[in-house]
Amino acid sequence: MRVLFIITFIFLFHALYAQPNLRHLKNTPRIEYKYFKAAFKIMKTLGFRVRKNLASDGYIQLIIDSTVQDATFTYIKSEVVNTDSERYYKKPLIRISPSLYDIIFKQKDVTNKMYLSSQSILIHEITHYLQVADEENYYYIFKDKNPDVKRYFNQPSEFEAYSVGDYFFLKQYDKKALKNIMKQELDIHRKCELLINLFMHIDSAGGTYVFPK
User: Fold this and answer.
1) Fewer Cβ neighbours under 10 Å: the N or C end of the chain?
2) How far apart, in whole angstroms, are the C-alpha atoms of residue 129 and residue 124?
3) Which pLDDT tens digits describe the chain residue by residue (213 residues)?
4) What domain count does the chain have?
5) Pairing mode of beta strands 61-64, 93-96
6) 3-class DSSP state for residue 17?
7) Residue 61: which H helix or E strand, with range?
8) Position 2 in a domain
9) Does 100 fall in a domain?
């Protein structure tokens, strides 16, 4: 009986403390905790893996950078742990354009759609910070004279980040449309394709779809 109790205690301890958590991110300078929490929750909903060693990261910083178009996540990857699920970042950094920063954090006077779209970009970059997915040979679409859109979106790290960001946007902007996608009897990958398609269609006022309709 005592052995059973010890085994049960160890199992519960592992379940509570060995899983990724966000406690250390509550005092992150410039980035409100709610954004980390939202990205984390959506990743769990969509079944995307979160890195185990978040608490080993250096403090993530938000830097206003006029050289970036919207926002981008950069980092120095740990040289100690190399496996994807256990890697951590020494100097995680999100660079954000002045205009995007003003919309998100200074409540610049814009339409609700633009405000939510801007927030979704930050959620996208936070997803890159949290996720396990990481391309060894990343395809930089913006450096290609003949960009391959499908190749870019199909990279696991980008597919996840767009899915999470677009889910966040639709949950605020059109909850009914989001619900209609998520209740369909489709695998989660296909649902994410539909999420991305719908966001692109809304955000670009009827633009082309990335994936088959």
Assistant:
1) N
2) 9
3) 544 444 443 333 343 344 566 666 665 657 889 999 999 999 999 999 999 888 888 888 899 999 998 999 988 766 545 566 678 888 889 999 999 999 998 877 899 999 999 999 999 999 999 999 987 788 888 777 888 888 999 999 999 999 999 999 999 999 999 999 999 999 999 999 999 999 998 987 666 788 987
4) 1
5) parallel
6) helix
7) strand 61-64
8) no
9) yes
Q: What is the pTM of this model?
A: 0.85
Which helix (H) or strand (E) segment is 71 a member of?
Answer: strand 71-74
Whether residue 15 lies inside any domain: the answer is no
Largest pairwise CA distance in the chain: 68
The secondary element (H helix, E strand) that includes residue 23 is none
**CB distance 181 to 151 below 8 Å:** no
Nearest to 174 by CA among 113, 88, 123: 113
**Angle at 21 (CA atoms; ends 19, 23), nearest 5 degrees:** 150
**Neighbour tally for 18: CB within 10 Å:** 9
How many residues are there in the chain?
Answer: 213
Contacts for 152 with CB less than 8 Å, ≥ 6 apart: 139, 141, 158
In a domain, 83, yes or no: yes
Torsions phi, psi of 84, nearest 5? -55, -50
What is d(CA 115, CA 165) in angstroms, rounded to the nearest whole number?
13
Cβ-in-10-Å burial (0-12, 13-18, 19+) of 29 comes to exposed
